[in-house]
Every structure is written in C-alpha cells, then in structure tokens.
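Q: Structure tokens for this one, please.
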Amino acid sequence: MGAVTSSSTPQAVHAPKQDRSRATRQRLLEAAVACLAEHGWAGSTVSVVASRAGVSRGAAQHHFPTREDLFTGAVEYVAEERSAALRALPVQGRAEVVAALVDLYTGPLFRAALQLWVAASNEAQLRPRVTELEARVGRETHRIAVELLGADESRPGARETVQGLLDMARGLGLANLLTDDTARRARVVAQWAALVEEGLG
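A: Here is the predicted structure, written as tokens:
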C-alpha cells in the first residue's frame, strides 16, 4: 500500500502545475486575440497581452519566447475557435443558418482574424502560418456550411451558392469594421437567405 501511495504522490502534485500552465497559456492566447481585435497588430505587444492576461511579461515569455511565437499561437487559437463556433451551430432552418454564419463573420473572432491577416501581409514569419490556417479554416467553414444548409453539391450551382454566401458574410464582416451596419445587414441577410433557399432547392 505504501508503494502505491508514494508513486502516486508526484502525479498528484504534478497535475495541478500542468493545469496552471495550461490555464496561463489559455489566458495569454485569449488576451492576444482580444488585443488584436481591439488594438490591431501595432498595439498588441507582449507586455500589453501579458498585462491583459494578468500574468508577468516573464511568464508570457516562458510560454511564448517571442512576439511572433505568441501571435502564431493566437493564429492557431483563432482558427480552432472559429471552427469550434461553426461546429457548435445547431441544425435549424436555412434562414437561421445564414444569420448565424453572418454573425460569426461579424463577431470578435473574425475581427481578430482580420488583424492577423493584415499583420501577416507585412510579417514574413506570420504569413505562411496564417495562409495555411486560413486555407484550412476556409475548407472547414465550407464543409460545415454545406452540412448545416443541407446543400447537395452534386446539383449545379449548389457549391457556388454556398461559397457566395460565405464570401458575402466575409464582406459584411469587413464592412462592420468601420461602421455598425446592423440595420442594413439585417435586410441583406434576409435577401441572401431567400437566394440560398432558391439556389439550394
């Protein structure tokens, strides 16, 4: 009995430390995404992110030694969160699915992703990672949209209808960066829902 107790004690001590480390990393990634969405690349330094996460700069650099490491991690986090948000959408009527997809593209995760795109256009270390992840997220978004909309892509025009919807949602997300476009957006979304219904049959 004594042998079992002594061998299990290090694990019991070790687990909370790992949990704290994971929690700190999670807070840093969430803070990095929030800073990007609110302040853009130029205003999102390691110090600003660490302060927002409630950890020291040293703790931040323990997890992410460089600024590029931190925001490359944020790229991955944003990609995973956007995919998870899509997968969590309930199966419902097409009009509701169209509205939910647009909400995703006009929300804070997409705003952070846009800041990453802008940063990647100027930062050589970020560009390949952002490009690769956006391609992956794009494929996943299309696949989930097809599933939620009940689209039969063997039908002529069905694939293009879904892709057009996603392109429109992305465009509304871009417009939302500058102005609160809620009222006009509601009318556009209603029209697109009708077009999707017609295009998918």
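A few notes: The two ends are 68 Å apart (CA to CA). DSSP finds nine helices and no strands in the chain.
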